[in-house]
Write a structure and sequence with these properties.
- 2 copies of one chain form a homodimer.
- Chain A has 9 helices and 16 strands.
- By secondary structure, the first copy, chain A, is of the alpha+beta class.
- In chain A, strands 8, 9, 10, 11, 12, 13, 14, 15 and 16 form a 9-stranded mixed sheet that branches. Chain A has a 4-stranded antiparallel sheet with strand order 5-4-6-7. In chain A, strands 1-2 form a two-stranded antiparallel ribbon.
- In chain A, a hairpin with a 5-residue loop joins strand 11 and strand 12.
- The longest helix of chain A is centred in the C-terminal third of the chain and has 18 residues.
- The first copy, chain A, starts with 7 loop residues before the first strand and ends with a helix.
- The mean pLDDT of chain A is about 95.
- Chains A and B meet through strand 3, helix 1, strand 6 and helix 5 of A and strand 3, helix 1, strand 6 and helix 5 of B.
- Strand 3 of chain A pairs antiparallel with strand 3 of chain B.
């Protein structure tokens, strides 16, 4: 069996084998955790919803006062070349923009732009079939509309999540639910309306795509979701680029509905899959 | 004039010229801003208050569930060798411990330990002589007792600080004062008592050293400081390893006392300098 060909990354303005992609330790991501990123899927050579992801990436950079070193058309060109070089059937591309090499270890330099492409790590079929469990934690991300690289709270909680037999954590602030570290959150109420928190959340592309599906038979809206409302929901799910619509069946000690992925959740997953297929043309 | 000899860093378990010290981009500091650090001064080859800084570094690592790859005695030995190699008259050593090379871009790997030593960047004599200006911002650091690498809020505010003609930002949460991004904060009240916030603050070594000076003529304590109390203070100052005791003369639109560094602040600066001289033996 032939070895896999090396994957390429884009760094310092050129394509480099991923295993040779390094940053000097003066970079402000290493010194001060300073940077933004974004992540999108590529199916059979075609990025899905690329414009929405590029919009958000440039907006995140602006919110952290970082200049993306490539104009949008040039960045789209680099993405296309990276896809051609790596030639993966199904992948995710991650774009990271750091604070750059800092002269004094605190003030940003010229931002470093990194692009990597890797095979996609999707939820397991078991997770989709049985649903996942969440714990809750009081925390609001800094600059919620920006997709910053700071995941200290979520990563620090990994051991606690595992110890409690859960799969992920859901953030709230003083009882008002927001999002998971890497996903937006929705509940399905007993009248079958679908609700997703409206404040202090990342503007998820999958979240946006779901909200755009709000037409009969679906009623989907943004609004305030409290912990108490959430514990009483009939169904719940996470959305993200890789998770798509991932059923949630337990939150803290509360089993939701029947304790199995519900019909509204599964119908929305199918609707999203249809939308993705349509986007691929 | 001969060129400066290259500075060495310690990375991947060995001493490497600083300009050749790189991390692979899979490191969790770059991918997720995940890491802790600490920083201490070295005078004429001798680290100042090293034990206190090592205590805090190992504590920070533990709070982020990261294992320092060197036992304490071995780390002290590496520090000693780094000081001998670089042979700087006055320097700061920074120890950074990252989440390591992550297989999936989210879960920590084997932590990477980096040590760098650089000439010390002290406040300018003008800043000490005239005092500095602060603005305020509502923010609480994640895991306040841990010295994490996350400075997104402070760095993002740099432009706003400059636009307002200020030098730094002071954090508060709902009107209760905490700390600056890289320094602790003290006020001097009109009865000459000195007070520093007691919750949601980093356990600063200089802060600790000042609190230990609380004996006549000084009365120094930890306690709650509100924005209103702070605006009415007679004097105020920041403390940190590099700033020592740095006078603050204006906060937002409020000029403190005479608008010049005050006698209690300057007496405490001198007391700290005496303590440092004593520590150097």
């Amino acid at each position: 069996m032939p070895a896999n060909p090396p994957l390429y990354a884009y760094i310092h303005g050129q394509f480099t084998p991923l295993d040779q992609a390094f940053l000097h330790i003066s970079d402000l991501a290493i010194q001060r955790g300073y940077g933004v990123f974004d992540f999108f899927k590529v199916h059979a050579g075609e990025p899905l919803f690329l414009n929405a992801y590029l919009d958000r990436f440039y907006r995140s950079a602006q919110l952290l006062e970082l200049a993306v070193p490539l104009e949008r058309a040039a960045l789209a060109g680099v993405i296309e070349q990276l896809i051609q070089r790596n030639n993966l059937p199904l992948s995710g591309i991650k774009m990271v923009l750091t604070g750059g090499y800092s002269a004094n270890g605190y003030e940003p330099g010229v931002p470093n732009l990194l692009l990597t492409e890797q095979p996609l790590a999707l939820p397991t079929p078991e997770q989709v079939a049985t649903g996942i469990k969440l714990i809750t934690h009081d925390y609001v991300r800094e600059v919620p509309p920006a997709k910053t690289i700071n995941y200290a709270t979520g990563i620090r909680l990994l051991k606690q999540i595992k110890a409690k037999g859960a799969d992920d954590v859901l953030y709230h602030h003083q009882g008002v639910v927001t999002e998971a570290p890497r996903a937006n959150f929705f509940i399905v109420k007993h009248d079958n309306t679908v609700l997703t928190p409206d404040t202090d959340v990342l503007a998820g592309i999958t979240r946006h795509n779901l909200l755009a599906l709000s037409a009969p038979p679906f009623r989907i809206a943004e609004g305030r979701v409290t912990l108490a409302e959430m514990y009483q929901a009939k169904e719940a799910f996470l959305t993200s680029t890789t998770k798509r619509v991932l059923p949630v069946v337990q939150i803290d000690d509360f089993v939701l509905g029947t304790g199995r992925p519900g019909p509204v959740t599964l119908a929305l997953l199918q609707a999203l899959l249809d939308l993705e297929a349509q986007e691929q043309g």
